[in-house]
Design a protein that fits this description.
single chain; elongated; mainly alpha; 5 helices; about 120 residues
Length: about 120
C-alpha cells in the first residue's frame, strides 16, 4: 500500500479514537470531577453569570468547559485568565494524574489526525 492509502486509513482510525476519547472518556471524567473542584472552579469569581448558565444548561458546553477545567488542572499557569492558577490545591493527586493523562492522550490523537490529514493533502 502507498503512504497516502495508509494515511487515509489511519486518519479514520485516529479520528474515531479521538472522538471516543474526547466524548466518552472526557464525559466520564467531567461527570466524576470531584465536587470541591467544581465548586471552586465554577463560581462567580471565575466565570460570568451567562457562562455559568450555559454550563448548567447545555451538555456540549458543559463537556467543553469540563475539558477546559481538566486542562486547567493539567496546566495551571494557562488558567491565569480565569484566576484558576491554584486549582490543584483542591484536587486529589489521582484526579491530577487522570487529567494529565487525558489531556496528553487527547493531544497525541489530535496531532496524529492532523499529520494524517497533512500527508493526504500534500501527497495526493
Amino acid at each position: 500500500m502507498q503512504i497516502v492509502e495508509w494515511a487515509f486509513i489511519l486518519f479514520f482510525a485516529f479520528g474515531g479514537l479521538l472522538l471516543v476519547w474526547f466524548i466518552l472518556v472526557g464525559g466520564v471524567l467531567t461527570f466524576f470531577t470531584p465536587r470541591r473542584v467544581i465548586q471552586y472552579a465554577f463560581s462567580p469569581e471565575h466565570y460570568t453569570r451567562g457562562e455559568l448558565a450555559l454550563v448548567r444548561g447545555f451538555h456540549f458546553v458543559a463537556l467543553t468547559h469540563g475539558i477546559a477545567l481538566l486542562t486547567a488542572v493539567t496546566f495551571p499557569k494557562w488558567a491565569k485568565k480565569r484566576r484558576l492558577t491554584e486549582i490543584r490545591s483542591v484536587c486529589s493527586p489521582i484526579f491530577i494524574k487522570l487529567s494529565i493523562t487525558y489531556i496528553y492522550v487527547l493531544w497525541i490523537l489530535t496531532v496524529s489526525v492532523l499529520i494524517c490529514l497533512a500527508t493526504m493533502t500534500i501527497l495526493q
